[in-house]
Amino acid sequence: MSDREPLDLGKTVIHAVAFMLVLSYALPYVYLLSTSLKPAADVQQIPPSFFPDRVSLENFGTVIGTAALPQAFLNSAIVAVLTTLLSLLIAVPAAYVSALYRRKITVLFLLFALITRMVPAVSLGVPLFQIMKTLGLLDTRIGLVLAHTSTAVPLALLLMAAFFEGVPKELEEAARIDGCSRFGAFWHIILPLMPSGLAITALFSFIASWNEFLFALLLTSQNSKTAPIVIAEFNSVYGLAWGPMTAAAVLYSLPVILITLILQKQIVGGLTFGAVKG
Known about the structure:
disordered C terminus
């Protein structure tokens, strides 16, 4: 008799589906990386090859020598970090009140946040442009931070409200009995329990700003251009410069990948938060 365990068909199917999903997401990035490593002459070859016949760092050298790109990367980093901080500053207290003090008004507040996520960003472009023009914030980092925050806060609010709902209200009540103020209970007792929630919310807010294209296209022109805009403007005498463009895109993706790897433990903890209750 064989000592092997019987084949679990259900688990095998789940693993196969998971593998296909991961592959479907990974292949475009692998092709992007492959194209960035091709010599300029091979990028436009017909028929195209998936993997480079000869690895070259020529495209990365071109990108590093592009004058506008370092400033665009800096603009993207500053805008994304400030957007993340401002979104957390607004969304975390609001989510705490909405989750732990359920009233009709707080339910409507969360519903309104959900509805704002359904509004297409393109429909907000013209009003935002007019507002920033009136305030004198066109082509400024502050203007772009405010625009990104307007779309990041509803997502951050919904995420943090879900995490706060998993915290027993008795913890705050016990802290209040021991002499804490309401803010003191929130700051010293509840918030330290939320590292995973804060990490996930910060990551999603950062990515939303880091990858944003439409508002950056409408609200910036020269001084505050972000990297996605500059990457999209890579041109050559033959049209789009696919080699440098893909190399810049690879470099631009690295910060998000590194941050995700650093916060991996918190992200996994956040995904399982509240899954097991006593």
